[in-house]
Automatic annotation (TrEMBL):
SUPFAM superfamilies (alphabetical): Composite domain of metallo-dependent hydrolases, Metallo-dependent hydrolases
Recorded superkingdom: Bacteria
Occurrences of domain Amidohydrolase-related (ranges): 48-364
Cross-referenced PANTHER family: ALPHA-D-RIBOSE 1-METHYLPHOSPHONATE 5-TRIPHOSPHATE DIPHOSPHATASE
InterPro entries on file: Amidohydro-rel (IPR006680), Metal-dep_hydrolase_composite (IPR011059), Metal_Hydrolase (IPR032466), Metallo-dep_Hydrolase (IPR051781), OTAase-like (IPR057744)
Any one GO molecular function term: hydrolase activity, acting on carbon-nitrogen (but not peptide) bonds
Pfam families listed in its UniProt record: Amidohydro_1 (PF01979)
UniProt name for this protein: Imidazolonepropionase
Gene3D superfamilies in the record: Metal-dependent hydrolases (3.20.20.140), Urease, subunit C, domain 1 (2.30.40.10)
Length: 371
């Protein structure tokens, strides 16, 4: 059995570090303590953290230029490999990847993190999932049977849309509770009704699925949380009512895409309001814009508001709770998954995680080694 020896371990629940060894057995952490026997990997002077979890990615989103459908799939190969190499061992895809990616990862055809998929973003006619152009009408950039029609109108239509996603292999159901930022600012934000949202979340629960809700505005956040969405994505313009509602959900702020925009300050203000109110915060990068901004970028932005330890918690133990995986990963404890990242230096500092990564273990196997 492999023993990772000599490092300090980061505990995301306390934000503290402690000197200990970690013994791996298969895909599990067998024991944590001092002086453990086994084939030693000398991690002296370093920091061991749980494998990172990104709760909002788009690993296979279409590029803006007109390309064959295969392009988004082939690009995803390098994206997934790069995420794992940087210590991101679990991701929740929030639109773009179909169930075939999960199969390919399980079979070893691709190298990458564990993947949860939502397939497409559900929404009403005229909402964010409705790709309609004045010159061409409906334009579907996915146009693939494995990515079913995401549009609905009325509560029964919302239930049917959920069933289509579940049939096609969705782990989570994503809904556009507000439109895009462009639609919000232009005053053309088409949102689901409260009855539609309630029916959608209820049907997801009946099918054993949770709901993540894209929501920029405070009104959309309140509607989605009241309907029972488990996580709110973006939450750019929170107010006191939205923060109060978020006591019943997780907040995934995805600061990266707007970090250089006019919306960066109100977005950071929303995060501060949520943090001060004790809202549960999980990390998500919104990995999609090119060039890709991954979770290591998001963690720097989170740390500027929350601090480094809290940012890491948002990408480990708190992210695992949101995804209902906290009995399996997110902490360095005996019995949990052997997803670990060895960082140079003992500091709890996320300012340059890619530059500090010495090694990554995923399912107990060092990344880059044959399984």
């Amino acid at each position: 059995m492999t023993v990772l020896a000599g490092a300090r371990l980061f505990d995301p629940e306390t934000g503290e570090t402690v000197r200990a060894d970690v013994r791996l057995s298969g895909d599990r952490i067998a024991e944590v303590g001092l002086g453990l026997d086994g084939e030693r990997v000398d991690c002296s002077g370093g920091l061991l953290i749980p494998g990172l979890i990104d709760c909002h990615v788009h690993v296979a989103f279409p590029r803006p230029e007109p390309l064959p459908r295969s392009a988004r799939i082939l690009e995803a190969v390098s994206v997934l490999r790069g995420l794992l190499a940087r210590g991101i061992t679990t991701v929740r895809d929030a639109w773009g990847a179909d169930a075939g990616f999960k199969h390919a990862l399980r079979e070893g055809w691709l190298t990458g993190p564990d993947l949860l998929v939502s397939l497409r973003q559900l929404g009403p006619t005229g909402g964010l999932g409705d790709t309609w152009e004045p010159r061409a009408g409906a334009v579907d950039r996915f146009a693939d049977p494995s990515m079913p029609d995401p549009l609905f109108d009325g509560p029964d239509g919302a239930r049917a849309a959920v069933r289509r996603m579940v049939r096609a292999g969705a782990d989570w159901i994503k809904v556009g509770a507000s439109g895009s930022m462009r639609a919000v600012r232009a005053g053309v934000d088409v949102r689901p009704t409260d009855d539609e949202l309630a029916a959608l979340v209820d049907e997801a629960r009946r099918c054993g699925r949770d709901v993540l809700a894209h929501a920029h505005t405070a009104e959309a956040v309140v509607s989605a949380v009241r309907a029972g969405a488990r996580s709110i994505e973006h939450g750019t313009f929170l107010d006191d009512a939205a923060v109060s509602a978020l006591a019943g959900a997780w907040y995934v702020p995805t600061l990266s895409p707007l970090s250089d925009s006019e919306y960066a300050d109100p977005h950071r203000r929303s995060l501060r309001l949520a943090a001060e109110a004790g809202v549960r915060i999980a990390a998500g990068s919104d990995l999609a814009p090119r060039p890709h901004a991954d979770l290591t970028t998001e963690l720097r932005l989170l740390a500027a508001v929350l601090g480094d330890a809290a940012a890491l918690k948002a990408a480990t133990s708190e992210a695992a709770r949101l995804l209902r995986l906290d009995d399996d990963r997110g902490r360095v404890e005996a019995g949990l998954r052997a997803d670990l990242v060895w960082l140079d230096g003992p500091e709890v500092d996320v300012s340059d995680l890619p530059g500090r990564v010495r090694a990554v273990w995923h399912d107990g196997v060092r990344v880059g080694e044959a399984r």
